[in-house]
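DUF429 domain-containing protein
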Amino acid sequence: MVGQEAPRTAGLTRSVARFDRFMAIDWSGAAGPRQKGIAIAVTDATGGPPALLTRERGWSREDVLALLRDDLPADMLVGMDLGISLPFADCGAFFPGWRDSPQGARSLWALIDDICAADPHLSAGSFVDHPALSRYFRRHGGREGDRFHAPEAQHRRGRFRVTERAQEAMGCKPYSNFNLIGAAQVGKSSLTGMRVLHRVDGRVPVWPVDPLPPCGSVIVEIYTAMAAIAAARTAGRSKIRDHADLDAALVRIGSAPMSGSGAIDDHASDALLTAAWLRAVADRQSLWSPEGLTDTIAATEGWTFGAR
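Predicted structure tokens:
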């Protein structure tokens, strides 16, 4: 049984205080060639303020894929604000009752990318509209699949991963990755992000699907609300839209402020604060071996870095 396994500790034989640079990517599953919702922030280990990486016309998902696959410096911890997998533990399958349901996160990524091969801009419409798979999603127009809920569900929010239950216990407000409607949904972002993870093609490990290696860059799943909570904000007040508020939050987590003024886009502030938060917590051994993370969970559902 999953719950009886020992916590996952593989790859933790060396100190995790080895990253020199930190990157947070606020992701987007929106349609179109470029996404206004993608923001990327970086910082280094010195404690200075984070900074945005910008593109003149904005970022596309293909741009981010190229960055991750070809242009990362050594020893960078990269956080992506998306779900790196779908619920598995609650039903023993991603898609219970479907004979072709994948058995692990990597095979799920490959399936999504294969079905969506003709979808432009690394989008994932073909996957959620697939005749068999659409039954598991809640889509626009009141189209809720008959398998959107787990059989013994006690609520109407859809299926959750084990890590999302841990997020709830910390005061966060996660959404099911099978939910594709509403301003706070993360399903589209997660599915498009899984296409990118598949195409990274093993060049950068994705923890905890891959064990934490002793050196080199690593990608992890992040939930930007965790950084806000660490900065003494609540999940309901996690969005920051003013530079003064951002500076106050940065200082609370031990970062130098940016000393900006006026309004700031909340995608940018999410990325900036979370990049600084990653730097502040990356050397905490407990975050790399949380109690609920077993080898089976790691290989199927993955985990959100910082959830415990």
